[in-house]
Every structure is written in C-alpha cells, then in structure tokens.
Design goal:
The protein has a five-stranded antiparallel beta sheet, with no helix packed on it. Strands 3-7-6 form a three-stranded antiparallel beta sheet, with no helix packed on it. The chain is elongated and about 60 Å long. The chain has helices at 16-23, 31-49, 146-161, 175-181, and strands at 3-7, 56-62, 70-73, 78-87, 93-96, 102-104, 110-113, 129-135. The protein contains four helices and eight strands. The relative contact order is 0.22. The longest helix has 19 residues, at 31-49.
Length: 189
C-alpha cells in the first residue's frame, strides 16, 4: 500500500534569492519561473533518493500488520510517529498510542518497529491501518546535506538554461547532479 503526502514542506531547500545569485539573475522578470524550477528540482531529488529534504507529513496505509513487526518507511529520514489508527468494519477509526512504535531513524529506508500481537487488528480488509509520520532532515535548509542542495542548484541552472529544449523522451539529469545524489539513493532489492 502507498505512502501519501499529507503535509508538504513549508519551505524549499533553496530560496529564490539563493537561486538567483547562483544563476546570476539580477532582474525580477523570471522569479515565478525560478520558483517553479526550485520546487521541481527538489521534487526530482526527492524522487531519485526516496528522501524528504524539508520536514513533511506522510501517511503510511496498510491492510494488515506485518508478521515480523517491522514496517519500512519511505521517504526517509523518518523523524517521528505523529498518529496511528486502525479502522473497524464500519470504517470507524480507533487511535493507537504512537509510543508503541520504535523508530529506526538512522538508516534509509526508515523502519517502524512494534511488538507483533500488541496492536489491534483492523476490521476492514483494505486500508485498515493508517500511520502518520514526520519525515525529512529538518524544517530549514541548513539540515539538508550540502551535496543534495548543490544538486538542486545544478538542476535549477540546467532547467533555466535549457527551457523548452527537452521533451519527456530525451530529458536527462546533468551528470554532476546525478553523481552528487548517488550516495543518498535508497536502494531496494
């Protein structure tokens, strides 16, 4: 089942002023375009790394509790469990104490642990469990690893300089940006 974005980041990892300075743009004519490019670059880095850069709220939806007592969390890094619920057959939610979960915050993907059998079973077969989590490096850009911020700068510059030159079939990430984010990719087997 999916992870769903509930609360988007309140800020971007790069301010408009920082992007304009990087691009050496001294006018305000392209501010809206540059703002969209920053958001797009952040989104691309997050997709490629399966990480949330700025603090965000996500909802994990599951049909049943895993037998092993562990739930993989993406995007990483996981910061805290905000709330958890199970739904009965009538669709009424029952809150679960968030302290019943143990967080493995150091790795990526993150991991939620719980004692098997300690949590109430959902009464509905589909999407019977919801867990709201907070993920991301922090509320401001200073907590984000600098290589990821540099990748965003490079992606913004590449997109700004090549507007309209690429189509979906031939769009490529600049090699330097790809190299900067490579160590931060969350791989799955």
């Amino acid at each position: 089942m999916p992870s769903i974005l509930v609360t988007p980041p309140a800020a971007e990892p790069l301010t408009l002023a920082e992007a304009k300075a990087w691009l050496r743009v001294e006018h305000d004519d392209d501010d809206a375009v540059i703002g969209v490019l920053i958001t797009s670059a952040r989104s691309l880095v997050e997709q490629e790394t399966r990480r949330a850069l700025i603090t965000q709220g996500w909802r994990i939806v599951r049909d049943a509790w895993p037998a092993g007592g562990r739930i993989e969390v993406a995007p990483a890094p996981v910061r805290q469990v905000l709330a958890a619920r199970v739904y009965d057959a009538a669709g009424i939610g029952q809150a679960i104490d968030a302290t019943l979960f143990t967080l493995a915050t150091g790795g990526a993907p993150g991991m939620l642990g719980f004692l098997p059998g300690s949590l109430p079973a959902p009464g509905r077969a589909i999407a019977g469990i919801e867990i709201d989590i907070e993920v991301g490096y922090g509320a401001d850009a200073s907590a984000i690893p600098e290589p990821l911020r540099q990748a965003i700068r490079l992606l913004v510059a590449h997109a700004y300089e090549n507007r309209g030159a690429e189509t979906a079939g031939n769009a490529r990430m600049p090699p330097t940006a790809a190299a900067l984010i490579a160590p931060y990719r969350v791989l799955t087997l």
